[in-house]
Amino acid sequence: MSDSFDDILESGIVFRGAPKGGSKNDKVKTKAKKKKYITGAHGSGSAKQKAKYREQRANRHK
Known about the structure:
The chain is mostly helical. The chain is built from three helices and no strands. Residues 16-62 are annotated as: Disordered.
């Protein structure tokens, strides 16, 4: 253990990113961009509130 600890102290740790070219199965599925969630039509109170804020922001510079 102390050998690897000393190596880390001397040379540091290299963190590598995720490999490029992941498969399509690695994507995160989200409902946040679907029309019913954007408009608040599915009945959730928080979605209705977010839809209200989106509408206000869209109408701000008209």
